[in-house]
TrEMBL record, chain A:
InterPro entries: AAA+_ATPase, ABC_transporter-like_ATP-bd, P-loop_NTPase
Entries under PANTHER family matching the protein: ABC TRANSPORTER, ATP-BINDING PROTEIN
Any one GO molecular-function label of the UniProt entry: ATP binding
Keywords, sorted A to Z: ATP-binding, Nucleotide-binding, Transport
Family: Belongs to the ABC transporter superfamily.
PROSITE patterns referenced in this protein's UniProt entry, alphabetically: ABC_TRANSPORTER_2
UniProt protein name: ABC transporter ATP-binding protein
Coiled-coil features, chain-numbered ranges: none
Length: 318, 326
């Protein structure tokens, strides 16, 4: 889908991309990086709107330097910021954007109706967009990126500003863009945990450099963290401590409570550990049962990008 | 449709959205196509688009039409139709009166010539322009819609060309329709076909020049002021203040008997510049004090300045969008 070869972009004062080489396959790919990591610059270059200082990139087999127009005809783009005029209805707006992508008027209307329905906008699509909630606006923004049936969509921070429910819906929608619509997705976020749930593959960039590019399965397997909460009983007044001791003896790699461990509500009762493989779940269950403790919850922790950075620093030292 | 992007069949019991790996779709292609025939009614799954993609030229034309309609409030809310339509009516009614007067007075010609009519109506045109230009240029910048255009096949040049052409066309329609009313009225009143046709043609050329120059100036100002209110005020100021200033100076020159100065001063504002051009080249009466007309040198300078202003403002407009990226 996308091949990036030693791509650099330097501005007079900053280097936005530094010899980035990465390939992106069909499917949903998450592009993770802190603000200013070079995500937006990369998207601009991939759309053929900004020339790279050096290196090359192809999108759908077309060179970004020479075939920008042809790329933009078959690629959709959803910007991070607001981009909707408030006095126009979603239908009118998306029809107009479809025509700007080259669709004839009738096709533009049909595709608009289809696309808006697929992103979950129904009767409200005839109302001016000024009165829409953030979630509805994000759907319209996604619809205008999909309306010309692109082969690839670039979504810049699509979950920005959404509440947890809206976030989940948007992530589900992004997943469907590939699984149901057959359109490949490159989605950026600064939250790794969020992209883990939707992406087949994750690319992490920092300071314009590639930090990591691996499949999501690989990612989670290597960094799966399990949080376990148990009850206290009369025999074990501090259930968490007892479980920790039992697991240590069973040879499970435990995380020592961090310096802020005591501050978060209920954190004293949480035991965090590395789940190297499936058998750890059984070990935890058996240990809790052996001690007669109630197992309140056992959950996989979401990772923040910071963990990848810590991991890298550790690797650099070694 | 290429096999690698055959969509999953949503109503198929085997398809579990969000669960399948990308490789699976390659195999499901034929099964999906076979299943589709059986449950057409229930299938509201995603359909791809295999029809034509008409590209840049088409998108440019579509943008032109949309912006032209938008300049009259068409395709927008009812509220935004009120002002342009009211102004358009205000523009047309006096033209009908000019015809009516000519008919009742049984005169041989219209009391007001075609190009003169446009110059007389400048305040109305100014207000219309101040409403239409920000509508075409400021809104996309204010609501940051431009990235959506530039992430499509359209280039910045296409976008600016389409919008500028639309504003020019809107302004041309705004000024030429009243002239058409006068012309049709004059023909119905049997005022002399040859003479009227010649004057009307000259009037249309004048309308085109007027629209080109004013649209360029207003478009540039509107593109610099994303807030519509500022744009409206700035355009009215830019069009009226130089005009009144130059007219005042010309008045002073006329009272002190410096008649050649009147011509030179006229270069100083778009309105007087166009007035000079129409009186010199398009057979209209001069609106300058003492009905001063231009000599040959002045005429040449007027034309050069007109072309230079057009080039200057369209270049500035294009430059404004050089940085307006994603």
């Amino acid at each position: 889908m996308i091949a990036i070869e030693s791509l650099s972009k330097r501005f007079p004062r900053v280097t936005a991309l530094d010899r980035l080489t990465v390939g992106i396959e069909p499917g949903v790919t998450g592009l993770v990086g802190a603000n200013g990591a070079g995500k937006s610059t990369l998207i601009k270059i991939l759309l053929g709107l900004s020339p790279a200082t050096e290196g090359s990139a192809t999108v759908l087999g077309m060179d970004v330097a020479t075939q920008g127009g042809a790329i933009r005809e078959r690629v959709g783009y959803m910007p991070e910021h607001d981009c909707l005029p408030p006095d126009v209805s979603a239908t009118e707006f998306v029809v107009h954007m479809a025509r700007m992508s080259g669709l004839p008027a009738t096709a533009a209307r049909e595709r608009t109706a289809d696309t808006l329905r697929h992103v979950g906008l129904y009767e409200e699509r005839y109302r001016p967009m000024g009165g829409y909630s953030t979630g509805m606006k994000q759907r319209v923004k996604l619809a205008q990126a999909l309306v010309h049936d692109p082969r690839l969509v670039l979504l810049d921070e699509p979950t920005n500003g959404l509440d947890p429910v809206g976030r989940d819906e948007m992530l589900g929608l992004i997943r469907r863009v590939h699984s149901d619509f057959g359109i490949s997705v490159l989605v950026t976020s600064h939250l790794l945990g969020e992209l883990e749930r939707t992406s087949d593959h994750i690319v992490v960039i920092d300071g314009g450099k590639l930090l990591r590019s691996s499949s999501t399965a690989d990612f989670t397997q290597r960094t799966a963290v399990l949080a376990v909460e148990v009850t206290d009983t009369d025999t074990h007044p501090d259930g968490a401590a007892a479980l920790r001791e039992a697991l240590r003896q069973a040879g499970v790699a435990l995380h020592e409570p961090g310096p802020d461990g005591g501050r978060a509500p209920g954190a004293g009762h949480l035991v965090t550990l590395d789940a190297a493989d499936e058998s750890v779940y059984d070990t935890v269950r058996d240990a809790a049962a052996g001690l007669g403790l109630g197992l309140v919850r056992m959950e996989q922790r979401r990772h923040q990008i910071s963990e990848v950075f810590t991991e890298r620093s550790a690797g650099d030292v070694a | 449709m290429s096999p690698d992007r055959t969509p999953a069949h949503t109503t198929s019991p085997h398809a579990v959205p969000g669960q399948a790996a990308p490789g699976q779709w390659e195999q499901s292609g034929s099964a999906g196509a076979a299943g589709r025939g059986q449950d057409v009614i229930h299938n509201i799954g995603y359909r791809g688009y295999e029809g034509p993609r008409l590209g840049r030229g088409y998108a440019r034309r579509a943008l032109f039409t949309q912006a032209l309609r938008g300049a009259y409030g068409l395709g927008r809310s009812a509220k935004s139709k009120v002002l342009p339509m009211l102004l358009f009516a205000t523009m047309c009614v006096p033209a009908a009166l000019v015809v009516a007067i000519a008919v009742f007075a049984k005169s041989k010609d219209l009391q007001v010539t075609y190009s003169e009519y446009v110059l007389l109506m400048q305040p109305i045109i100014g207000i219309y322009l101040a409403a239409a230009a920000p509508q075409a240029f400021s809104l996309d910048l204010r609501f940051r819609t431009t990235p959506l255009y530039f992430s499509r096949p359209l280039t910045r040049g296409d976008y600016v060309a389409a919008k500028y052409a639309a504003l020019t066309a809107a302004l041309f329609v705004f000024t030429a329709v009243p002239l058409l009313i006068m012309y049709v009225g004059a023909l119905l009143a049997k005022l002399g076909v040859a003479h009227q046709t010649e004057k009307f043609a000259q009037g249309l050329v004048f309308c085109a020049l007027f629209a080109l120059l004013h649209a360029a100036i207003a478009a540039w100002i509107a593109a610099l002021t994303p807030r519509r209110g500022f744009g409206v005020a700035a355009i009215i100021v830019a069009i009226t203040v130089p005009y009144f200033l130059v007219s005042a100076l010309q008045g002073i020159a006329a009272t002190t008997d410096k008649n050649t100065a009147i011509g030179w001063l006229g270069v100083g504002s778009p309105g007087t510049l166009l007035d000079g051009v129409q009186s010199k080249f398009l057979g209209g009466p001069s609106g300058f004090p003492a009905a001063q007309t231009l000599d040959a040198a002045q005429g040449a300078v007027y034309l050069v300045v007109l072309v230079a202003l057009l080039a200057c403002f369209t270049t500035l407009l294009l430059r404004r969008y050089r940085k307006a990226g994603l």
